[in-house]
Amino acid sequence: MRYFLGVDGGGTKTDAVVGDETGRLLGLGHAGPANHAVVGIEGAAQAVRQATELALKEAGLALDQLDHAVLGLAGADFPEDFENLTRAVGAALPGLQFRVVNDTWIALAGGAERGWGAVVVCGTGVNAAARNREGQEVILRGLTYEVGNRGGAVDVIRDALYAAFRAHDGLGPATALEHVVLETLGVDNYDDLARMIIHAGPEGYFLAMGLAPAVFTLASQGDQVAQDILISHGTALGESASAVIRRAGLEKEEVEVVLAGSLWRGASPLMRDQFITTLHRTAPLAWAHLPAYEPVVGGYVMALQQAGIDINPRTSTALATSAAHWGRAVRGQ
Questions:
Q1: Are 129 and 104 in contact (CB under 8 A)?
Q2: Domain spanning 115-291 has what CATH number?
Q3: Stretch(es) of the chain classified as CATH 3.30.420.40
Q4: pTM
Q5: Residue ranges of the chain whose pLDDT lies below 50
Q6: How far apart are CA 232 and CA 121, in angstroms?
Q7: Which tens digit of pLDDT belongs to each residue from 113-123?
Q8: Which of 95, 108, 237, 285 could bridge across to 254 with cysteines, CB 3.0–4.6 Å?
Q9: CATH architecture of the domain covering 3-112+292-330
C-alpha cells in the first residue's frame, strides 16, 4: 500500500491529511500558520512538520512510508518563495518527496468537478486563480491591498475597525460595530483600542480575527454598515475572479468557480451574492459553489495524481466517504 500527504498552510492555521492509494483518508493533523509572510520561512516549515507528524501519528504511519506529498502554502507567490520553502521543508521533513504549490491550486483540486475552472480563496487573506481546458494557468499575486488584492478576514477586520472608530468619533454613520468591536477585543474604550492597534502593528489584525465573523453576524441582523462592508468585499472578490477568468479565456464558458476559505461560509449571504453579481458581468454562464472537499484534501488528491494514480469511480467513492468525516474535522465541526 502506498501513502500520500496533502498540506494546506494558511495565515491562521495549517492542516495535513494522510491517505492511501485507494482514496481512504487515515489521519489529520493541525498546527499554526504556515504563510511565510506571517511566520517566516522557518516558521512555515515547522508548522508543516508539526501538522504532518500529527497526521502520521493518527494514521499509524512513519514519515518514510509516505510516497509523495503536495503542500499548498499561502504566500508562495514568487520563485524565491518556492525555492526557500522547498529547502526549509526538506530540512524539516528529510527524505519526503514533495512539491510546494500556491494554496489556490489545492483548493481548485479539492473543489473543481471537471479539473479546470476558477477558484477564489477567501480566508485570512485572498487569492484567485484559473485553469482552462487546455491546462493554461493564471494566478493573481495573492499579496496585499497595496499591490492590488483586497479581501479576506484581515481586510474585513480593517474595514470594521475603520467604521467603528468613525462611528465613535462622529465621523461616520452609527453602527453596532462600535460596541461589538470593544466587546470582541476585550477593550474598555477607544483610546485603549487605538493604543493596542498602534503598538501591535500589522500583527494586530491576527489578534482580532473574531471581528470577521462578527461583521457577518451584524450584517445578517440588518446593520447597514456591516452590510456595506460585505457588499464592498463581494465586489472586490468578483473582480478578482473576473480577472483570472478573462486571462484564461473563459468568459464565454460555463466556468466552474470554487469558493474556498472560511469567509464564504459567513452568517450573511451578502458578500457571496455581490460576488456572483460582479462575476456574471464578466462571465454570465459561470456557476459558483463551495468545494466538495477541503483544500487539504485537494493537496492529497494532487499527490495521488502526481504519482500517476487516477481518481477512478472506486477511488472517488472511498474519498467521498472518508472526506465527509475529515472535512467536518478540518472545519472543527
A1: yes
A2: 3.30.420.40
A3: 3-112+292-330, 115-291
A4: 0.90
A5: 332-333
A6: 17
A7: 888 999 999 98
A8: 285
A9: 2-Layer Sandwich (3.30)
